[in-house]
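Form 12-C: Joint structure prediction
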Amino acid sequence: DAGVTQSPTHLIKTRGQQVTLRCSPISGHKSVSWYQQVLGQGPQFIFQYYEKEERGRGNFPDRFSARQFPNYSSELNVNALLLGDSALYLCASSLEGYNEQFFGPGTRLTVL
Amino acid sequence: GQNIDQPTEMTATEGAIVQINCTYQTSGFNGLFWYQQHAGEAPTFLSYNVLDGLEEKGRFSSFLSRSKGYSYLLLKELQMKDSASYLCAVRDGNAGNMLTFGGGTRLMVKP
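Section 2 - Result
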């Protein structure tokens, strides 16, 4: 079975641009979470979606938004990119009621 | 809010035992997780504790004391491939079960 997949793998943008990152959860998983991981730090929670509804939101500005589709895949959008948005963006999926979150390989975003 | 502390770096010798500590403060504790992350890769799940005590899984064990806000990950019979970052994460039941991660402990295993 395929694990969590994310696209693209790497992305380079310039300040002020907008970016969309994509995530496909493990088949059967209805919950998707997004995390930002700056180099040398632990992941920081951005959003959680379950059954297409937002379940939780971390301490990120409104430039960050997300949505979940009927097939449970998800997109993370970041507007008006800043240099500080350069990071590894991780998507994790899980079964509702289960403890383990399975992480995808991440999208490395570089903002120049 | 939540606060999670773990050492930044540790070094140990192949074949030895190492203990990585994690302390936390949270309002709605609903479980503590340990993840392993090799450089450039995604975190992979190691263990989960929600009740006090020790959970053992092969060479890895994890301990939790809820009253002390304390956990540790114990790695036995260290191997070179255990060189990685180890992330402690706490789940907050008052915040949609979101995970809050510590900064990670970078473990270097030397021959």
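Section 3 - Comments
The mean pLDDT of chain B is 93. Chain B is about 0% helix and 60% strand.
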